[in-house]
Amino acid sequence: MNKETLLAAVVALVVGLLGGYLVFSISGSKNPAPAGGMAGGGAPMVNYEERIAQTVKVVAQDPKNLQAWVQLGNDYFDTNQPQKAIEAYGKALELKPNDPNILTDQAIMYRAVGWFDKAVTNLEAAMKVDPKHVQSLFNLGIIYMEDLKQPAKAVEYWKRYLDLDPASPNAQRVRMMMEQAKQVQPSSSAPGPMFR
User: Fold this and answer.
1) How far apart are CA 78 and CA 85, in angstroms?
2) CA 66 to CA 31: how far, in whole Å?
């Protein structure tokens, strides 16, 4: 495994963990905290292996349980198991085909296995469902910049992102990436983290 692949995997894991935390915090989820103690920072520790095993049992008994499929996909995402995450998100999309968040998460996993065309297709589908879905815009920019080596196309998506979200902490990051894109030759960019 080369350094870039390892770095991308670590970044994807961190982004997935933070993204999952933010999604549950924002949605005001009333789900109980996972079993386990508190980590040094006060965040609950998650036993992914146990939670995945439990969720697999749930979907085996209730294959139409959308929330369980999404949770399974998220747990596979967070444990760097992209192929399994793709499959779980695929089952969730069979139940709710036009969910921009599920489409985006699956797209990030498609990128992780190098299926950039499928990632772009998912992200564009998410944008059709919700033209203000900033995560899709952000990630389209990453794929065009880092993987498809089309910095001008990346800048187009990031400009749209900034039109919708000019003041968030991510907006500053997008501005910096846009500046880099304007200076980068199409064949020389380093991999970037995706935004969930």
Assistant:
1) 9
2) 15
